[in-house]
Amino acid sequence: MLDQPIVDIRELRVEFQTRGGTVAGVENVSFTVKPGETVCIVGESGSGKSVSSLSLMRLIEFGGGEIAKGQLLFNREKGGEIDLAKATQDQMRKVRGNEIGMIFQEPMTALNPVFTVGRQLTEGLRVHRGMTAAAAEKQALELLREVRIPEPERRLKQYPHELSGGMRQRVVIAMAMACRPRLLIADEPTTALDVTIQAEILALMDRLKRETGTAVMFITHDMAVVAQMADRVVVMFRGNKVEEGPVEQIFNNPQHDYTKALLAAVPKLGEMRGKAAPEPMRLLGAENQRIAPIPGTDQRLLTVSNLTTRFPVRGGFFRRTVANVHAVEDVSFTINKGQTLSLVGESGCGKSSAGRSILRLVEPMGGKIDLDGVDVMALDTNQLREARRDMQMIFQDPFASLNPQMQLMDQVAEPLRNYDIASGSEISDRVANLFDRVELPRSFLRRYPHELSGGQRQRVAIARALALEPKLIVSDEAVSALDVSVQAQVLNLMMELQAEMGLSYLFISHDMAVVERVSHYVGVMYLGRIVEIGPRAGVFENPQHPYTKALMKAVPIADPARRKSEKDLNFKPIPSPIHPVGYEPAPSVYREIEPGHLVLTTDSGY
């Protein structure tokens, strides 16, 4: 009986009705999941991976789809096999949450903002297990301990918005595991998380799977996560299964062209060892691609000295400032023309605040910012507007940074009009050239943002940032939400533009493999300070600060032979960056390990 699959999906076809007729989200897909096994379903956006899991939960009907054909056989704990495709909603209510648990991609939307964490955790236990309120609360506390949430008693009384992203995701995992389901479906559960939190959550899911014997269906587009988690891999492409096999076989001997292309696009930590300068990735199908290192120059473009940014925390009856969030604390670095400095660290370490402070999108409290001889801190509003021609920003979410009501042509032309750089037909020509530059077809000029994929939208955001021919571009997690092959194309594009136009980048990211690929220099941030900074090779091949070492250890590597175990991951919880008014931290003092490679000696709390 042990070998009998918990789930057997046979010839599944799911259809969506659209204006243009019927569209198949999934065509003729079959695979099984056995007890205690992790099956990873990989593929890019639109390949049908989430459609398969939502069909199994019969949630697809609420998203406008219908199961047109196929069987979804689920082996219940009591009551034998059931075809979920034909089950009534009443039967499904008993299965959902009780026998099949699901972890959704975005924890903030998976949790109800108006109920406390405790209320949401106990709900499933009371409905499915018939527990009393006291017993359910005791069990909820135990679940929070299992997923290693600090101070679980306090967390039960808190609301989702009071928790960090990683903590919210742990609560969602605790909810999914509450009734000890036979099958756990995890839909991109770590996509939006930091590398350290991702490593902990993957290790946690692996441990829970071993302890409870739950089967796991893991949906992801991150091949490094697949290498860490999978027993078997199902590769999906455009609604079809194109390859299936044990994880070692898929990585070491892929058969299908799409699997090969997917693996070629994954930046692997350690690939740049021995290379002095960054260079674009060699992608399959791009044979005419120029691969040349990008050395940059040794001319200084940006000098940041002792930058400090704090945000007030207001409280009390008169909304007085009762404390400050020390977001950026005494940060100094330089960027040369045509080179990239990457800032890496976890959420809340201050890297985005540092990027925004340099553009004065948030006002720094102190420090000096010199951009090509211009003192940015001394500029008034009109002068700052003029100076922003030289410094532009690419944001993390292109959909939020583009106007949904404007055609793409007008959005890219907007900076040109604002600064009276061009007019009439000259604008059209320049915008068309920018579209050529970022490799978007000119037919897209009259489209709207919602008609494009994530990677295409990010290209539009890059085109708009390039419109004013800036000297410095601050890229804030610009590729973190993209599929692996799209991410590789966008990174290559940014590096080619750097080589052609001599651009300098401040590249903000939490993905260490991407940072290794694109950087000349790397700064590691922790609690608002740079704890280690230096040339890429120095920081990656000879990390000195304990936090840098922990960060390197946490990175999943796209190789099943190099899996991390939970004992490799010994992260300390990050202390609070909030300090009372009047608190003055010690200045940053650095020790030079080798020329240009500096390590913080002031106590950073790690």
From TrEMBL:
Q: Which compartments does it reside in? A: Cell inner membrane
Q: How does it sit in the membrane?
A: Peripheral membrane protein
The family note in this entry says:
Belongs to the ABC transporter superfamily. Glutathione importer (TC 3.A.1.5.11) family.
Domain ABC transporter, by residue range, is 9-263, 302-552
Which InterPro entries does the UniProt entry name for this protein? AAA+_ATPase, ABC_transp_ATP-bind, ABC_transporter-like_ATP-bd, ABC_transporter-like_CS, Oligopep_ABC_C, P-loop_NTPase
Q: Does the keyword DNA damage apply?
A: no
Show the catalytic activity.
glutathione(out) + ATP + H2O = glutathione(in) + ADP + phosphate + H(+)
What GO CC annotations are associated with the protein?
plasma membrane
Top EC class of this enzyme:
translocase
Biological processes per GO annotation: peptide transport; transmembrane transport
The species this protein was found in:
Seohaeicola zhoushanensis
Molecular functions per Gene Ontology: ATP binding; ATP hydrolysis activity
- State the UniProt keywords alphabetically: ATP-binding, Cell inner membrane, Cell membrane, Hydrolase, Membrane, Nucleotide-binding, Repeat, Translocase, Transport
Q: What is this protein called?
A: Glutathione import ATP-binding protein GsiA
Would the keyword Disulfide bond turn up in this protein's UniProt record? no
What is the annotated quaternary arrangement, including any partners? The complex is composed of two ATP-binding proteins (GsiA), two transmembrane proteins (GsiC and GsiD) and a solute-binding protein (GsiB).
Q: Cite the EC number.
A: 7.4.2.10
Its biological purpose is as follows: Part of the ABC transporter complex GsiABCD involved in glutathione import. Responsible for energy coupling to the transport system.
